[in-house]
Specification:
By secondary structure, the protein is an alpha+beta fold. It is built from 4 helices and 12 strands, in the order H-E-E-E-E-E-H-E-H-E-E-E-E-E-E-H. It has a 7-stranded antiparallel β-sheet. The chain has a 3-stranded antiparallel β-sheet with strand order 1-11-12, with no helix packed on it. The chain has a two-stranded antiparallel sheet with strand order 7-8. The chain is globular and about 45 Å long. The two termini are about 30 Å apart.
Length: about 180
């Protein structure tokens, strides 16, 4: 059943109110694309997921090798996100990078990186849901993350009070999984 244009517009508006981090998913070649549909999935085994469009040529290249690297962007990397958000350009011409252990590019200056192999690809409507098995993790840079909210880049407020919250600190690592069911 096709989705009406009015519903699609409302869907984008509503989901735009969910703040996401901005990443660049890279693969050997080198290839890469800006991706905000990224999430941690599991601690045991360590899994992540991202969702490329089904028509993405970059994803097709990554799928052939079965390896990818998620580069988590810092607030000062808006332009890098813009470059990797465009189609058909030589995205690596203006940025320095080094290969991750799996061969995919790690972009210079990122907050951190996650080197993975494709574990499974699921249907997600007009996107794929790619589950990656984490093989290597990069060091963490002390900087603010680049965020996307309501159709715009934004960043965390570095002056906001930062204090531990026991519930949030344990959300991903909560030991009693049955509590969430």
């Amino acid at each position: 059943m096709p989705v009406a244009a009015e519903f699609r517009a409302q869907f984008r508006t509503v989901l735009g109110h969910f703040c996401t981090g901005v990443t660049v998913v890279t693969g050997a070649g080198p290839v890469g694309f800006a991706c905000q549909a990224f999430a941690a999935l599991s601690l045991d085994p360590p899994l992540v997921l991202f969702c490329p469009g089904k028509s993405s040529r970059t994803w097709q290249s990554i799928a052939r090798t079965g390896r990818f690297c998620v580069n988590v962007l810092a607030a000062d990397q808006r332009e890098l996100s813009t470059v990797f958000g465009r189609a058909g350009t030589d995205k690596f011409a203006t940025c320095a990078w080094q290969p991750a252990p799996g061969g995919a590019p790690v972009l210079d200056g990122v907050l951190t990186w996650i080197d993975c192999e494709v574990a499974e690809v699921l249907d997600g409507g007009d996107h794929h849901v790619v589950i990656g098995r984490v093989r290597h993790l990069g060091p963490c840079r002390d900087a603010q993350p680049l965020l996307f909210y309501r159709g715009r880049y934004t960043a965390a407020d570095a002056t906001a009070e930062s204090r531990p919250n026991a519930m949030l600190d344990n959300l991903f690592t909560w030991p009693r999984h049955a509590d969430w069911l």
